[in-house]
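Q: How do we represent a protein-ligand complex in a form that can be generated token by token?
A: Start from the inputs.
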Amino acid sequence: MVGTGPHLSSIMMPYLPLGLVVAALASGDQPRPSVRSCQVCHRQIVATFIQTAHFHTSAEATRQSVQGRFSEGHNVLRTGVPGVYFRAEGRDGAFYQTGVDSAHSRSRTERIDLVIGSGRRGQTYLYWRNGLLFELPVSYLTASRRWINSPGYPDGQIDFERVIVPQCLDCHSTSFPLNADRRAARYSGDYQLGIQCEKCHGPGEAHVTYHTSHPADTLGQFILNPARFSRDRKVDNCALCHSGARDPLRPPFSYRPGAVLDEYLALPSVGQTPVPDVHGNQVGLLQRSKCFRSSPGMSCSTCHDVHRPQRDVAAFVPKCLTCHQINQHPMAEQIGERMMASCIDCHMPNRRSRAIEINTPGSRVALYYRSHEIGIYRDVTAAVLRSPVEKRNP
Ligand code: HEC
Ligand code: HEC
Ligand code: HEC
Ligand code: HEC
Ligand code: HEC
Ligand code: HEC
Ligand code: HEC
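Then emit the structure tokens for the protein with heme C bound:
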């Protein structure tokens, strides 16, 4: 979900750094092959990859991709201002948001063109105007199945003017080139939604061409495999999007896997965020844990296979056991049969995000994320030990 921290304060503010926009042009993105072109030879990987949140993190608005509720009784967001409300409607296969100010007989309607967010937690919707993208004022939370003010929009105003800056799309799509003519910057129509193979493996055209004409060669050519990067470069490859909000030093979409990320994104300024937030900053948190600091080989791939969905928390426990032995656990006796089922809940507990602010009147919504600061949480342990054994901790 978008929030005030990583997303809004620096990213969503209506600024479009023109220097960077123009520089992005120079970096000259050519059309890139999609997952389909990899499928011929990597059938298994593609079959599971297309089920992941990465692949679905942005899409054209369709009946399948838009998860918000449009049926009567579920499609209105009331605000704190009497007479001001938002309505979501679907007709003829298209979806719309309308802001209504009945006291002043004003309303405004825009179509939902693009969807950001796989919907694991929520979705934000965008619309096109004059070659730029704007955030629609109402977003959707999937768990509570409700509409909320889009992060960054104040409650009770009919406002559709938050421009989508390239950083947002750099984290939520594969490529989204900018064209700047003499008068204005515009997004090109030649974009690639979803996070696809090339975001982590670099351009794949030469690889596809080579292997198509050399079917007997079983050694991958002209493609990057992050497994052979140094640990820092491996982590950088995920940190492009998982190290929170950082000011750009170079144009969006110019980072290539294997490069030094700190040359593309400024380090978070000291004191700005004393503890990284659980939302969007798994890198910052993992780097604080003893596991990471004491294991020079540990990276995100130690636990994650990004080519398939991994939703079973218990399935991560064997990863811990490659380095730890439970028979040496200092609390083995007390923990007893909960050892495996609660391993992650005790040491990587779900924590509330402080970065996400949901300002819908009348209710507070908090979002929880797994903390990657692997450590000892005595309060959490006490709660887990009090809970019934059969029940797996939420
Ligand atoms: C015509 C067949 C073919 C196509 C199409 C193809 N690959 Fe490959 N790829 C191979 C072969 C053969 C290998 C070497 C054996 C292996 O690792 O599976 C390979 C290996 C790789 C590797 C590992 C390279 C290494 O150094 O270990 C990556 C990553 C990869 N491919 C990504 C892609 C991506 C991304 C696409 C789509 C843009 C793609 N491939 C399309 C045939 C293909
Ligand atoms: C281009 C940006 C980008 C890169 C690079 C990236 N991620 Fe992500 N990642 C995201 C976004 C955005 C989401 C949220 C997708 C959604 O639910 O809409 C996400 C979600 C995830 C999830 C949760 C998946 C789920 O099913 O809920 C995991 C795990 C993850 N990323 C791990 C990684 C790892 C490991 C790497 C590096 C190998 C990586 N990511 C690289 C942007 C990125
Ligand atoms: C620095 C990279 C980055 C930027 C910039 C960014 N996001 Fe995200 N976003 C993420 C990551 C990573 C996740 C999922 C993991 C997490 O929340 O910890 C995510 C999650 C989301 C989700 C929830 C997806 C789901 O179903 O769980 C939405 C919606 C979203 N972002 C919208 C936006 C919008 C809209 C913008 C720009 C206006 C934006 N984000 C900018 C990295 C980014
Ligand atoms: C979010 C980043 C990310 C995306 C997207 C991604 N990969 Fe990978 N891929 C990796 C990482 C990281 C590794 C190395 C894993 C390791 O260290 O063992 C890898 C390894 C590979 C390999 C080497 C063999 C193997 O199984 O480890 C192949 C082949 C491959 N990827 C193909 C693909 C294809 C095809 C796609 C798109 C359908 C894709 N990848 C999408 C991050 C990614
Ligand atoms: C690549 C190896 C590796 C993996 C995988 C790993 N750890 Fe660790 N972990 C370590 C090392 C090394 C230490 C530091 C030991 C020391 O300093 O004595 C450590 C420390 C810890 C500590 C002590 C933390 C503290 O602050 O005192 C806990 C708890 C822990 N790990 C739990 C886990 C859990 C749970 C998992 C799986 C989610 C896991 N580890 C995965 C290597 C690993
Ligand atoms: C020691 C194992 C381990 C390592 C290393 C690790 N993760 Fe995770 N990660 C987990 C576990 C366990 C979950 C929880 C899965 C779940 O709840 O479905 C998780 C969940 C996530 C999620 C989803 C968070 C949420 O609450 O929605 C993201 C995003 C993610 N990891 C990214 C990363 C990135 C990026 C790295 C590298 C900086 C990384 N992880 C390293 C074990 C690990
Ligand atoms: C009910 C909660 C709970 C469960 C389940 C649990 N732990 Fe722990 N673990 C703790 C607490 C609390 C400590 C600190 C104990 C102490 O210092 O007295 C600890 C300590 C540790 C340490 C540090 C050991 C040391 O000698 O300092 C490691 C490593 C560890 N746990 C790994 C694991 C792994 C791996 C699992 C799952 C396979 C697991 N734990 C399951 C609560 C738990």
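Residues 235, 238, 242, 282-283, 286, 298, 300, 302-304, 311, 313, 316, 319, 344, 348, 369-370, 372 surround heme C (ligand 6) (CB under 6 Å). Confidence is low (pLDDT under 50) at residues 1-31.
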